[in-house]
Specification:
The chain has 806 residues and is an alpha+beta fold. The protein is built from 29 helices and 18 strands. It has a four-stranded mixed sheet with strand order 9-5-4-10. Strands 13-12-11-14 form a four-stranded mixed sheet. Helix 1 packs across helix 21 (544-566), helix 2 (58-71) crosses helix 9 and helix 15 (389-398) packs across helix 16 (400-408). The longest helix is centred in the first third of the chain and has 32 residues, at 2-33. It is globular. 44% of the residues are buried. Residues 1-33 have low confidence and may be disordered.
């Protein structure tokens, strides 16, 4: 058996090596094909009137709300079906693309983010087709509009309770799915009558369809200039002026600091405590910041300055395009609808502005390092040398939720190849910058900055060897408890919970979901390498070979961070847990990943027979509950003395009974449980919301394309949470307190596919039921009422389809 495993490992290594050679060829060809050019995006020009009897606010008042509630549940992200993005009017006008975004792309392509072309005409040249007809006789426009015809098809075939079975082949052959642009809507629907919209969900109401018919007949007008001026108006311009002034200071270090902040926050949505309800993006612009002054009468005078965003493929690309002589960092107001799966908010305030000033400008630049490194390099260790490494590292750990969110909530939004590089449930800690070897000696003794970002096996080994030598120099007895950053016992970014939900992931602050199987300890240089490989350097439009390179590098970094944590354990426990965390064929491949420091020092002194619990107890005492959050009674290891068959009379009883099933292995139902289940529990007039998350167990995560071969279903667990956790609900349950005992008892009894389907049909809100939209609307309202500013619209692309059969 062992020889066969080694043979398989050898074959895999050969295939990876061959892939690297082919990847080089693909890269060269991809560079020739992806001829996209950077440009300056000028503000959208809106018409003075709708050209019809419809009011200037008709689109925003009547049409966009329907898109928000019924359409962007699938058409809200970069990889939306047919790339039709309906979060704003500009996305509607861009339309859909002939090429299937879910198909395999051997070569790199042009970027297709919503504003990656300067005009609708440019999108047409790139293969996008219109989905609403705006020309010709008004009465003929609806019948010629792809959007309306798809809605009508949904009305004809998706009246609850409609059959779900015809949808299954479409999901099984997603890579072959076609969009109606090239074939034509008549032929498309004749071959696929059940493909109406909303896809596989209850149809729009007659009133909603009538609104679309009237709007399309009127020419599908968008908002007028007057309406959009009101939407884009700043509520607190002085707040934005303060931040733009900070980002564009007339001091030597300012351009480099702002560039550093931009490259670490370009995907984030910014929200300011002093301007609640407004959202912004940090962009590079050719126009200067706004000015806010007070006149002689004490009135506020705002000098407006429209943002002319410099659009480049990646954030480190040279922004000095032909004709661009001056660069400014600006805050561009976000007016499109927010979708949960790509929304991550960087919450800012005047206090944080003061802290950033202290962090970056109340320190001296590193002597002899360039303040104007140019754009020939995109290596952060090289480019930002002049900023003290302590400041850079402190920024990363203090804003770790922001940095990690960029990795798991990037523009693609979903992708199980990328998420397979991480385990399903783990906690993350950070090396204190004050004690971090890569901060104390930023060069790590390496000969070239390129060694920091070398994704290859050999290059990564060179980096690891250098890091351990410096670690041994500064920490000859290994890491100690005070080397773990505690967030100054107040910053919850010091302790993160990561949940992988098959095609996507969730990040939470603090200790949540019970004690997971594995843990990371991230150092500064490793954190920066991880972020730049997965976010800044990552080309979502790149080739398969490029993405495989990124996946392999991510897999190696995961192992490095796990090894960092293992160095906290007593010496004799380190290899035991390393082998426990990676088993089977994955363990055979660990020979490629040496464990520097495996036998260095003694580790932390722990009590009892469980060294992991001993280390976590010390971390908890060091951090305090201000960082970790309170004890998690929903996922406690000390189970209450409660029987599932006992009647549940109140919310406390429900939580006690639920906790008896959480974080337990060897349960029969957990392999059937969807990744994310949302529950509304009702007692009388009171509602509470909970989430159930399935934690899948894998023997290894370092062999690409063998996810199923690594499954260990007997080690799966379920964790429970207050509120809504996750962006892609796979099942929604509307539960009354009097049915709670039966819900848990019958769930615990599930052991076969047939039993699971019966349980799901009994308790779940099925996507073909009349109750589906009202239930989702309630949860959406709850989300926006209780989770601001972090609330967005959920994605239903995999609802009831990813985790189980019909």
């Amino acid at each position: 058996m062992k020889n066969r495993v080694r043979y398989s490992a050898g074959v895999l290594l050969f295939l990876l090596a061959a892939g690297a050679i082919v990847g080089g060829i693909v890269w060269q060809q991809a560079s020739e094909q992806a001829d996209w050019q950077a440009f300056v995006l000028e503000p959208t020009t809106y018409p003075e009137t709708t050209g019809s009897e419809l009011a200037g606010s008709y689109y925003l008042d009547k049409i966009q709300p329907i898109f928000n509630r019924r359409c962007i549940v699938c058409h809200g992200c970069l990889d939306s079906p047919c790339l039709l993005k309906l979060t704003c009017y500009e996305g509607l006008l861009r339309g859909a693309r002939k090429v299937n975004p879910d198909a395999t792309h051997l070569f790199a392509e042009k970027p297709v983010r919503l504003f990656d072309q300067p005009s609708v005409a440019a999108w047409r040249e790139q293969g996008f087709c219109k989905v609403v007809e705006q020309q010709g006789p008004p009465e003929e426009r609806p019948a010629k509009s792809i959007l309306f015809r798809m809605l009508v098809a949904g009305t004809e075939h998706n009246q609850p309770p409609f059959e779900l079975q015809p949808l299954e082949p479409i999901y099984h052959s997603v890579n072959k799915h076609l969009c109606p642009c090239e074939q034509g809507i008549d032929a498309y629907l004749q071959q696929r009558p059940s493909a109406g919209m909303p896809f596989g969900m209850p149809a729009l109401t007659a009133d909603e369809n009538q609104l679309f018919s009237e709007w399309i007949s009127a020419g599908s007008p968008g908002p007028t200039a007057e309406v959009m001026a009101q939407v884009q108006q700043l509520k607190q311009p002085e707040v934005i002026a303060r931040w733009e002034a900070f980002l564009n200071q007339d001091v030597l270090l300012s351009p480099l600091v702002s560039r550093f902040i931009f490259e670490h926050a370009f995907l984030a949505t910014l929200h300011f405590e002093e301007s609640p309800g407004e959202y912004f993006r940090l962009v590079r612009s050719t126009t200067p910041p706004i000015q806010v002054k007070t006149d002689a009468d004490g009135k506020q005078v705002v000098t407006a300055s429209p943002v002319h965003e410099i659009k480049t493929a990646r954030p480190f690309n040279n922004p000095y395009l032909p004709g661009v002589d001056k660069l400014y960092y600006r805050l561009k107001k976000v007016t499109e609808s927010r979708v949960q799966k790509s929304l991550f908010v960087w919450q800012l305030s005047d206090d944080k502005l003061k802290h950033l000033d202290e962090l970056f400008f109340q320190v001296e630049p590193v002597a002899g390092k360039s303040l104007e490194p140019g754009y020939s390099s995109h290596n952060p260790f090289e480019v930002f040398q002049a900023i003290p490494a302590r400041s850079r590292a402190q920024f990363l750990v203090e804003n770790s939720h922001l940095i990690v969110s960029g990795m798991i909530r990037g523009p693609v939004c979903v992708g199980n190849l990328a998420t397979y590089a991480i385990k399903d449930n783990f906690w993350v800690f950070f090396v204190d910058p004050e004690h971090d070897p890569s901060v104390l000696k930023p060069e790590l003794g390496l000969q070239s900055w390129e060694d920091f970002m070398n994704y290859g096996l050999e290059g990564n080994a060179v980096y690891n060897d250098a890091y351990f030598k410096v670690l041994d120099q500064y920490k000859p007895t290994g890491y100690e408890i005070n080397d773990v950053w505690d967030g100054n016992q107040q910053n919850s970014n010091a302790w993160l919970t990561i949940l992988r939900n098959e095609t996507n992931a969730t990040i939470l602050r603090g200790r949540q979901g019970g004690i997971p199987p594995t843990f990371w300890l991230i150092d500064y240089s490793g954190f920066e390498r991880l972020y730049y490989s997965l976010v800044v350097n990552y080309e979502y439009y790149g080739s398969v070979a490029q993405k495989l390179d990124t996946w392999e590098f991510m897999s190696r970094l995961r192992q490095e961070f796990e090894d960092n944590f293992l160095r906290l354990l007593p010496v004799d426990a380190r290899k035991k847990y390393r082998d426990l965390w990676t088993r089977g064929i994955g363990q055979e491949l660990l020979f490629r990943m040496p464990f520097p420091g495996e036998n260095v020092g003694e580790g932390l002194e722990v009590e009892g027979t469980d060294p992991i619990s001993g280390v976590l107890s010390q971390i908890q005492r060091q951090f305090t509950e201000a960082v970790s959050g309170p004890r998690d009674l929903l996922n406690t290891g000390n189970k209450p003395d409660v029987k599932l068959t006992d009647p549940v009379k109140d919310f406390a009883g429900w939580e006690a009974a639920l906790s008896t099933l959480t974080m337990r292995t060897q349960l029969k139902f957990t392999p059937f449980l969807p990744s994310n289940t949302f529950i509304r529990l009702t007692k009388g007039e009171e509602h509470r919301v909970y989430s159930l998350v399935a934690n899948r167990s894998y023997a290894f995560n370092n062999v690409v394309f063998d996810e199923n071969g690594a499954r260990q279903p007997e080690l799966d667990t379920m964790s429970a949470y207050h509120g809504l956790v996750g962006d892609f609900p796979n099942l929604i349950v509307d539960l009354k307190i009097e049915d709670a005992s039966a819900f848990l008892t019958e769930l615990n009894a599930v052991s076969t596919t047939e039993e699971w389907i019966a349980w799901k049909n009994k308790f779940g809100t099925l996507r073909n039921s009349a109750a589906f939209w009202p239930m989702l609307d309630w949860l959406t309202d709850w989300n926006f009422q209780n989770r601001q500013p972090d609330a967005g619209y959920f994605d239903l692309k995999y609802y009831m389809l990813l985790d189980s059969r019909y």
